[in-house]
C-alpha cells in the first residue's frame, strides 16, 4: 500500500509538472490575414513588455557569464530591427516576441531537448538567443538558414530545454527542436498545420490522426471537456474549420480560450502589426499598435508591466526602462523561471544580479 501511495504521488507530480509547463502556439493564415496566437500556461508570473530599439550594440551572455566572474564577451552585434518582447527575466531575455518586420518567435517547453554545440560559436542563454534572432532577421528562412552559424543555445543548468515556433509576415512558419545534438527543423511543407505544443510535432500529429476530422476512427467531440494532452487536437480542429476569412483575431482568441486560457495570452496580427495581450491577473485585452512605436536609436528603451491596469491602446503607457527597474524584474523573475525558490537566496543569484546590471549599464540609464 505504501509503495502504491508513493507511486501515486510520483505520477501526480509528473502530471502537475507537465501541466504547469504546457503552452500552445499557432498561426492562422489566409489570403488577407496572418495571425499568431500563443498561450503561456504555467503559473502567475511577473513580467514586462519591452520595446527594444534598433542600432543597439550588444554582447552574448551565457549562463556562465551570468553566474561567474567570466564576463568576457565572445560575440557582439548591433540590432538591425526593433521588437516588442514579453520578458520574465528582464531586459534582453524574452520568452517570446515579434520584431518590426513581423518575425515572431516563441519557446515552448520540451522534455527531450538536448544541446547543439558548435565549437566555433559562443554560448548564449536561451532567452537572449530569442532576442538575437529578433534583432537580426526578418523572415523564417533567414533564421533557419543561420542556425548552424549562430550562437549555441545555453539552457538552464540541470533542466530540460525548449523547442521553438516561429512565423513571419508572409505567412511562413517553422518549428525548431534540438534533438540528439542536432537542430530538427520542420517548415510549412512538413507541417500539415502550423501549430506547436509541448511534444515533438510528429507525436502530437500522430495522436490527432486517431480522430475522424483527420481520417481516424475516433469521433472528435468538440463539446467534451478536453484533457491537457488533447490541446493540440482541439486547436488543430479549430484551425482546420476556420473558413470565414473575417475577424481572424477574434477567432484566434477563441482558440486560445477553448484549448485552455494561459496565464499570459497574446495574439499578433502581423499584417496590420497590431499586438493584443492580457494576463491572468488583468483579463481585459490591451492593444499595442506596433507601427506607431519608436524603435529609433535615439529613443528610450521602454517597458510596460504585463499586469498593467491600463486598458485599450496602451502605446502611450510605456515607461522608460532603467537599470533599477530592470533589476526588480530580474529579482522576481529568475527564481520563477528557474523554478527554484532556493536559487533566489543563493550567492550565485547575487552574482547574477550584479552581472546583469553591469552587462546593460551602457544601454539602460541607472534610474
Describe, in plain words, how this protein is organized in 3D.
- By secondary structure, the chain is of the alpha+beta class.
- The protein contains 9 helices and 20 strands.
- It has helices at 2-20, 63-67, 126-136, 140-145, 201-208, 231-240, 248-259, 323-338, 347-359; strands at residues 23-29, 34-40, 48-52, 57-59, 76-78, 83-87, 96-99, 104-110, 123-125, 152-154, 161-167, 173-179, 182-187, 195-196, 264-269, 274-279, 286-289, 302-305, 312-313, 319-320.
- The protein has a 9-stranded antiparallel beta sheet with strand order 13-12-11-8-7-6-3-18-20, with helices on one face. The chain has a 7-stranded mixed beta sheet with strand order 14-1-2-15-16-17-19, with helices on one face.
- Strand 1 and strand 2 (34-40) form a beta hairpin.
- Helix 6 (231-240) runs antiparallel to helix 7 (248-259).
- The longest helix is centred in the first third of the chain and has 19 residues, at 2-20.
- It is globular and about 60 Å long.
- The protein starts with a helix and ends in an 8-residue tail after the last helix.
- 41% of the residues are buried.
- Mean pLDDT is 92; it is low at 1-20.
Amino acid at each position: 500500500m505504501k509503495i502504491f501511495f508513493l507511486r501515486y504521488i510520483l505520477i501526480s507530480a509528473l502530471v502537475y509538472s507537465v501541466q504547469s509547463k504546457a503552452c500552445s502556439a499557432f498561426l492562422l493564415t489566409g489570403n488577407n490575414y496572418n495571425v499568431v496566437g500563443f498561450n503561456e500556461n504555467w503559473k502567475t508570473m511577473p513580467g514586462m513588455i519591452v520595446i527594444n530599439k534598433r542600432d543597439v550594440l550588444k554582447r552574448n551572455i551565457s549562463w556562465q557569464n551570468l553566474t561567474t566572474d567570466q564576463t568576457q564577451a565572445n560575440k557582439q552585434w548591433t540590432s538591425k530591427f526593433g521588437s516588442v518582447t514579453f520578458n520574465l527575466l528582464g531586459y534582453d531575455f524574452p520568452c517570446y516576441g515579434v520584431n518590426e518586420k513581423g518575425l515572431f518567435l516563441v519557446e515552448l517547453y520540451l522534455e527531450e531537448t538536448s544541446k547543439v554545440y558548435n565549437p566555433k560559436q559562443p554560448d548564449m542563454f536561451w532567452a537572449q538567443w530569442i532576442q538575437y534572432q529578433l534583432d537580426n532577421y526578418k523572415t523564417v528562412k533567414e533564421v533557419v538558414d543561420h542556425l548552424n552559424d549562430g550562437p549555441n543555445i545555453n539552457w538552464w543548468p540541470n533542466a530540460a530545454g525548449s523547442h521553438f515556433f516561429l512565423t513571419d509576415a508572409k505567412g511562413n512558419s517553422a518549428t525548431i527542436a534540438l534533438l540528439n545534438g542536432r537542430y530538427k527543423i520542420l517548415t510549412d511543407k512538413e507541417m500539415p498545420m502550423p501549430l506547436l505544443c509541448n511534444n515533438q510535432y510528429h507525436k502530437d500529429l500522430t495522436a490527432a490522426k486517431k480522430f475522424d476530422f483527420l481520417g481516424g476512427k475516433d469521433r472528435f467531440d468538440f463539446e467534451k471537456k478536453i484533457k491537457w494532452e488533447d490541446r493540440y487536437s482541439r486547436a488543430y480542429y479549430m484551425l482546420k474549420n476556420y473558413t470565414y476569412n473575417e475577424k481572424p483575431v477574434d477567432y484566434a482568441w477563441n482558440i486560445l480560450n477553448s484549448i485552455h486560457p494561459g496565464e499570459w495570452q497574446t495574439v499578433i496580427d502581423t499584417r496590420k502589426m497590431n499586438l493584443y495581450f492580457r494576463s491572468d491577473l488583468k483579463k481585459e485585452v490591451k492593444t499595442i499598435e506596433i507601427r506607431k512605436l519608436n524603435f529609433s536609436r535615439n529613443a528610450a528603451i521602454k517597458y510596460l508591466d504585463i499586469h498593467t491596469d491600463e486598458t485599450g491602446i496602451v502605446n502611450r503607457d510605456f515607461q522608460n526602462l532603467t537599470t533599477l527597474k530592470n533589476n526588480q524584474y530580474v529579482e522576481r523573475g529568475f527564481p520563477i523561471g528557474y523554478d527554484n525558490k532556493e536559487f533566489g537566496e543563493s550567492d550565485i543569484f547575487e552574482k547574477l544580479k550584479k552581472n546583469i546590471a553591469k552587462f546593460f549599464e551602457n544601454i539602460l540609464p541607472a534610474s
